[in-house]
Amino acid sequence: MSAAPSVNTPSSSSFDLAGWSQRHLARVEHALSRWVGEGAPAGLGEAMRYAVLDGGKRLRPLLVLAAEEAVCSGAEVEASAHAVSDGAALRAACAVELIHAYSLVHDDMPCMDNDVLRRGKPTVHVQFGEAQALLAGDALQAFAFELLTPDDGSVPDGMQAMLCRLLARAAGSAGMAGGQAIDLASVGVALTEDQLRHMHRLKTGALLQGSVMMGVACGPASAQAHEALSDYGAVMGLAFQVVDDILDVIADSATLGKTAGKDAASDKPTYVSLLGLENAQAYARELQVQAHAALARSGLADTRALAALADMVVDRTH
Amino acid sequence: MSAAPSVNTPSSSSFDLAGWSQRHLARVEHALSRWVGEGAPAGLGEAMRYAVLDGGKRLRPLLVLAAEEAVCSGAEVEASAHAVSDGAALRAACAVELIHAYSLVHDDMPCMDNDVLRRGKPTVHVQFGEAQALLAGDALQAFAFELLTPDDGSVPDGMQAMLCRLLARAAGSAGMAGGQAIDLASVGVALTEDQLRHMHRLKTGALLQGSVMMGVACGPASAQAHEALSDYGAVMGLAFQVVDDILDVIADSATLGKTAGKDAASDKPTYVSLLGLENAQAYARELQVQAHAALARSGLADTRALAALADMVVDRTH
């Protein structure tokens, strides 16, 4: 069942998202498989690879790559510059996925959500033990920044610095980790819609928006495009969470690949518990429209991949 | 009781390490206090500050600052360039301390060393709960990279990229996290001296050497100085661990500010269990001599602070 029944979906039907995703995911999977855990000692590499490979929708990497393509689409970019922004975007795409993966490893641990199932597989701490899971998460975060700072001259210094800055802010106490702390403190607490939105803007939104802005940082972007894609990223962060909350209610564990109904069981505030299911679905549609509107004012020549990803986020079933 | 009875200590007695440290530590403490946890929500900031402030010898920050001073000591540096390297070194000094602090928070958790006492205070998870401790460690790591990438133009892009690169490598699976994984896998295992050295080169050595090299990266360094200080950093990493193992045997918990005798109790291999106490003490002295020799071949005008820190590491009582 789709998260939000289609009412008046903006059309991006001329774009082949499946083909586009498949092409780009092949690059991401190949790069992750080549880079993650390489040479890590004493089982650490295996735990890191288990946490990252063969799993997940890779939404964040796709946002990075789609944003980089969009900002390059209007500009006259020489072949050499294009190779640089492509290479940087691939590294950025992998780096955000490493941050996402580490957060899941730590989230699943007994002292947090105590989840035993993730993407249909035993969670990392179940498979490798808690200590190794803790270390694997820590090492994945460090490796994200290592990926962004190659010493082979392939990514200009300024771009490396900007990518590290965006990722650190998105992952840290003003972003993902901060959102998780609010989440932790709000179990059983009746949040207002503003408080719930603030929590998710940090917990999920910061890294999704950060993904978009890291893609933007890999290419040439006007101030107008920069601002519009920042808005797009913020809306996508919200939409993703609203749909996640909806799916937690309407989907089953087999479809989700993780334990469904966890939010209600743990008395966590959600958009569904706050707004009700129908209003939450309507809100998801509204955010989809806002995402398309932001792209329309970017002034960029080709934002079709970003538009299709917005549709996918709202229409997804898992 | 000092870790290694003095036999033939290289002299750095003309240098006032206490005064030098006091001056530089004041800058580090002030900066950490201003920066760490600022604006972090839902108790996360308190846990981060508790983990970092008012504690520790700050050896790593001092190594960063001493190395930066050393590489600047020979060069003709304009006042403006000097302000840049000073500011960058202060950020680097704080960043390595954040990585060190996060590693202690995670190390102390029940699934790792399960320690309840650190620097004479309850450990972070005892004080704030396991979930918050996990998040605080994660947020501290992210914040280290945020500190290295200011967007105010105070640190050049190339320096930001280099500092992030050095820190990520030192903290990750080829450094600290990798060493911890080896440590985890070697409880109750009879390691050879080479294996023990490899473990510590990663677990403790990488971040100590990384501290020195981050200081070097903040100033102008010849290839000769770069290589010599890299050697100095590697030797310091080893010396620190050898002395740590000695102190775990000869000091008591009150002096150490943490639980003494943990290594023997947990059947972890140490330099003392491998070499015996007297040989371990002789090895510490030998490393001290090697550290001084590395400084002597650096070609730098003033390496007195680095020399005094080497003496302090070997002569320390806690």
Characterization of this structure:
The structure is a homodimer of 318-residue chains. The relative contact order of chain A is 0.16. In chain A, strands 1-2 form a two-stranded antiparallel sheet. The longest helix of chain A is centred in the N-terminal third of the chain and has 29 residues, at 79-107. Chain A has one domain (17-315): Orthogonal Bundle (Farnesyl Diphosphate Synthase), CATH 1.10.600. The first copy, chain A, is globular, with a radius of gyration of 19 Å. Chain A has helices at 17-35, 44-52, 59-74, 79-107, 124-128, 130-147, 157-171, 176-185, 193-217, 223-250, 253-256, 262-265, 271-275, 277-296, 304-315; strands spanning 117-118, 121-122. By secondary structure, chain A is an all-alpha fold. At the A-B interface, helix 2, helix 4, helix 6, helix 7 and helix 8 of A face helix 2, helix 4, helix 6, helix 7 and helix 8 of B.
Which features does this protein show?
318 residues, Farnesyl Diphosphate Synthase, 15 helices, two-stranded antiparallel ribbon, (2E,6E)-farnesyl diphosphate synthase activity (chains A, B), mainly alpha, 2 strands, EC 2.5.1.1 (chains A, B), globular, homodimer
